[in-house]
Amino acid sequence: MENFLDELVKNVQASGRYQFISEDLIRQVGQSELNKGRKLKEAIKLTRSKLHQVAVAYQETPIPYNQLNETLASLPSDLHAPEMLNFCRETMRRHVSTAERLPILENYYNEIFSALPPIHSVMDLACGLNPLARPWMPLPDDAVYYACDIYEDMTDFINRFIVYTGQNGSASMCNLTRSIPSTSVDLTFLLKSVPCLEQLDKNLIPQLLQQIQSRFIVVSFPGRSIGGKNKGMTDFYSKHFEEILNNLPFESHLYSFHTELTYLLVRINK
Ligand SMILES: C[S@@+](CC[C@H](N)C(=O)[O-])C[C@H]1O[C@@H](n2cnc3c(N)ncnc32)[C@H](O)[C@@H]1O
Hints:
Elements: H1 2-14, H2 23-35, H3 40-54, H4 65-73, H5 82-92, H6 96-101, H7 105-114, E1 121-125, E2 144-149, H8 152-164, E3 168-173, E4 187-191, H9 194-200, H10 204-211, E5 216-222, H11 233-246, E6 250-255, E7 260-267
Parallel strand pairs: 1-2, 1-4, 2-3, 4-5
Antiparallel strand pairs: 5-7, 6-7
Helix pairs in contact: 1-2, 1-3, 2-3, 4-8
The chain binds S-adenosylmethionine.
S-adenosylmethionine binds next to helix 6 and helix 9.
């Protein structure tokens, strides 16, 4: 079985769109397919398909990180310089999830932060390219910004962005179905990632929310599918998430952004 798993990982990584995904996650998904008694070829196909659903599908074309790194190095390092703001917007357009948020970006973070005490540290879980929204977040300049996702090339680029713009913090690779960063922060973002994580482990979310090391958590859900259809998704997600919340020690506040169902959770007694 071990040899089959190594073979599966090698095959999945051989395809360009999957080569920078956390090996730990490829192994986990692959192992679960092999455990179901699938033949190797079928298990490879199903592993790719699952990784596509939870990550690859959000990058309609591969993100050209080398080119982005070069452009970044030619810009003024001030986060609020017009050239930097333009770079952040154009880069966020390359990931479906941040692209959808661009029309509401100005209000999104202002509205969320207006309900919070001063925030000095943030953990952005399953971040995608959202750390590039930092100029639109009303955070003090010295706030610490941590971020993680399953992609090595993405987290490397975000690290460069954090360093180049003189921010405190870092980006790293993670597989949230295996472990949750243990650094304590004021605020955690878990934006539009619950459905992806539930596809990998349908029971993960209550335990994830309880283990997150912050008093405040912003959790959001997509207002529509990747293909653009609405299909009553927000009703479905709100019902599902509120059932999860019923058994957890959080107060919740629902925001009215119609393109992104967004909850602010406040941990009780922490
Ligand atoms: C819908 S996107 C959301 C991205 C970002 N939070 C945003 O709202 O712009 C889902 C993200 O979850 C990441 N992801 C999928 N499985 C993951 C896992 N097991 N651990 C960490 N991140 C994961 C994907 O790579 C992708 O960037």
